[in-house]
């Protein structure tokens, strides 16, 4: 079973739009090269982000723009827009009901997973897109500093 990356890809796309605005063309081809995916995937993500009110796009124009400030967009909002209310954790329902473990694992894990999902949603609600962008920029600055230090050795 493949795990969906729509959530992380949507965060990636939104962060890319903010960081590269005015520095490069924001075409689906260029964004796709950053995400290591196809422009079709990027266009689908952008369509969803447009439909859920995060970005504005103009057909035929490679200039999507954020409709809200990054500080005002929580990761929880992005998660709900991209994944809906699909559960964070999947439970296998094809277990043997005659086994002590197989017959009780679903309701047991459901209780624990439900608590974990509530906690995860609370945390995602406190993290803004701006927090992610700031962290990306700090990590990039640290990487460049480390590379410059190696060059001087």
Tell me what the structure shows:
It is a single chain. The longest helix is centred in the C-terminal third of the chain and has 23 residues, at 129-151. The termini are far apart. A hairpin with a 2-residue loop joins strand 1 (55-58) and strand 2. This protein is 59% helix and 7% strand. The protein contains 6 helices and 2 strands. The protein has helices spanning 6-20, 28-35, 39-51, 75-83, 105-126, 129-151, and strands spanning 55-58, 61-66. It is mainly α and 153 residues long. The mean pLDDT is 91. Helix 1 (6-20) packs across helix 3 and helix 1 packs across helix 6. The protein has a two-stranded antiparallel ribbon.
The structure class reads mainly alpha
Largest sheet, strands/sense/barrel: 2 strands, antiparallel
Helix run count: 6
Shape estimate: globular
Annotation, overall tally of beta strands: 2
Terminus-to-terminus distance? 47 Å
The low-pLDDT segments are none
| SSE order, one letter for each helix or strand | HHHEEHHH
Mean pLDDT: 91
Q: How is the largest sheet built, in terms of strand order?
A: 1-2
- The percentage of residues in β strands lies in 5-15%
Rg over CA atoms, rounded to whole Å, is 20 Å
Binned, the helix content reads: 55-70%
């Amino acid at each position: 079973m493949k795990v969906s990356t729509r959530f992380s890809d949507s965060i990636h796309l939104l962060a890319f739009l903010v960081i590269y605005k005015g520095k490069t063309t924001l075409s689906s081809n260029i964004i796709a090269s950053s995400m290591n995916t196809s422009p079709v995937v990027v266009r689908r993500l952008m369509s969803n982000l447009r439909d859920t009110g995060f970005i504005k796009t103009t057909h035929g124009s490679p200039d999507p723009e954020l409709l809200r400030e990054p500080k005002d967009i929580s990761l929880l909002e992005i998660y709900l827009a991209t994944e809906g209310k699909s559960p964070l954790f999947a439970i296998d329902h094809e277990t043997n009901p005659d086994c002590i473990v197989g017959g009780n694992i679903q309701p047991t894990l459901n209780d624990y997973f439900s608590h974990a999902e509530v906690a995860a949603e609370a945390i995602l609600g406190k993290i803004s897109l701006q927090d992610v962008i700031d962290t990306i920029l700090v990590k990039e600055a640290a990487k460049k500093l480390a590379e410059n230090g190696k060059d001087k050795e």
